[in-house]
Structures are given as structure tokens and as C-alpha cells.
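Format notes (please read before filing issues)

Several people have asked whether sequences and C-alpha cells are stored in separate files. They are not. Every record keeps both together, in the order shown below: the sequence lines, then the C-alpha cell lines. Line labels are part of the format and must not be stripped during preprocessing.
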Amino acid sequence: MSKAHLSPAQLDAFQRELDALRAEVAGDIGQRDAEHIRGVVASARAHAVAGRSLLMFGFDPLSFAAGVLALAKAKILENMEIGHNVLHGQYDWMGDPTLNSQTYEWDIVCASRDWRKTHNVEHHNHTNILGKDDDYGYGLLRMTGEQRWTWRTPLQPLSYLLLALLFQWGVAIQDLKLGRWFKGRMQPGELRQRAAPFLRKARGQLFKDYLLFPLLAFWNWPRVLAGNALANLIRNLWTNAIIFCGHFTLDAQVYSKAEVADESRGAWYLRQIQGSGNLEGGRWLHLLSGHLSHQIEHHLFPDIPAPRYTEMAPRVREICARYGVRYNSAGFWRQYLGVLWRILRHALPLDRRPAGLAPATHAEA
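Then the structure lines:
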């Protein structure tokens, strides 16, 4: 499936319909949304207390497994449904300082101020534009034939495995721009300045999970240490899978810089839709993914409270159908296997094409 190309008049009409949908939902935001996010915060805290208690005071394998799963769920809820969405400013309207995008600090090693820059500004504005969206392959992976193949590319299945296992660290160092430093394009002083927030945040997270809580458990410290490590690992693998399904599925399109020159608002909407992919599933998939199971709606309306995406999705899909725009949506395993196939497929030196001549498409993969 290739990209849809709409005329300027169609793009204007497309924009008006999506703007109207956004205005309608934005006008209805209120108590229901506040109750949702406060309920999720309470649930995450309860799971964290339960998980840490089971790890600290339990002694058998069953309580260890239950503690790890409860703590992992708490970390996933905090990272995805709370942290990600709060940092997008979805709940700033509540006036609650604990849910404000400018002050919230989440439970991962990535400093919130760094993430707001790399994700909210750079990724969301330049979604899937080669050479401008650093999230596209994270500087490690070749996900389309339009990216350069090097001698390191065949190793990318291993690179991806390491990235998935250590995903919070990969996200945390993204704003350091280490590639520029390795190429001598960044002075050591600038690197130290960029690294300072990350190092402060990483020290705090390592102290909490791998020193403070194990010490509080006294003789049970190995169990708490291992439980915390496993909970962080589960959170890393899950968040990586969800986020990679957002933009690297078989039908997710890429764009060249030339294609987006003088891009209109309607064309921007079109790129967000064609560069993203949704996951179909039940309520728990949506909640544990931070509603990034509706990646398309999130990229169209990133500051709308995420649970609203579930009710907006059918209407976005209907609008897309009328304009002949593919709405990329499927179950988790179909989308994730497509991601893995693209990683393996583009590890090989095939389909070397200059940027802009042909997009990454289902047929190509």
C-alpha cells in the first residue's frame, strides 16, 4: 500500500473535518477525564505498594512473581498512561501541580525536560521524516531502503534486542546526540551540559531501585534487587514493543525533507496518519499502552486526554475512508511481527534508493 496523495482542496477539507472533530472533543473535556487520570494514579500507587511489599516481606517464589508483576504494572501505568500523557500537557487544564506537564518527573531514567524536547517537539513535529525525526530508527536501525546501509547494519537485530532490553536508557540518552560527539561535531563542554540532567536523573533512579529499597529489606535485599531489575526489564520490553508498533509497522510510511517542504496543516495531518499505526484490542491493551494503541489519534491530537482516542478513532477512520487514506490498524502480534520483519529485512543491503523516490511500503517489505 502506497501513500495517498490529496489535492490542495482535498487537504483543506480534510483539515477542516479533523479540526472540527478536535474542537468537539476538546469542548467536552472535564470531570470524566480528571477522574480517569486520578484513578490511574491511585491504581499505579497501589500496585507499587503491593509489589514492593511482596518483594520486601515475602519469602516464596509465588510472592516474588506476584511482586514483580505488580511492580511492573505500576511502572508501566506510570510510564505510559500517566507520564507520557501528562508530559504532553493533556491534563494541564486541571490546574493540578502534580499532573502538570512542566513539573512532572516520571519514574524512568530519562529526564522529563529532555523527553519533552526530543519527543514532544522533535518527534511529533517531524514524524517519520528521514534525517529530521531521530525516533526513526533511533540512530541504530535501518527501517527502510531509503536509509543508508553500512557495515554495521547486518548487526541491527542484535542492536534492536539490546535497545529493547535497555529501552529506558536508550530514550534517556537520545538528547545527548552522541553521534555528533563521536564525529567530532560537538565540543566536550556541550556534551557535559547536555548530559547533566540525564546523569542527575539516572543517579536518583539507580539509588532508589538498586540501593535504597534493597537496603530497607535487610536480609531480603537480593530478592528486592532482583525484583526491581525484573520489573524494569518487563517495563522496558513492553514500552519498546508498543512504541515500535507506532511507526515501524509494514504500512507505516516515511517522508523525505523535500516531500514536506511548504507542508500545509492538512498535509501535516495526512503525514501523521500515514506515518503511524494502531493496535486493536481490549480496554487493558489501551490502558497499559497509554492509549498509544491509538497512535494515529495521538499524533493528530497529542494534547487531548488519551482515553478520548478510543471514541475518536472510528470517526477518524471514517474520514480517512472517504478521502481514500489508508488507516493502518491491526492486532498487536500482526503489527509487532511486521516491525520485526522490517528490522530483519532492512539489515540486508537491498532496496538502496535515494530518499524521496519511493516510500517504505507493505509491498516493499
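For reference, the curators noted about this record: DSSP finds 14 helices and two strands in the chain. The longest strand covers residues 278-280.
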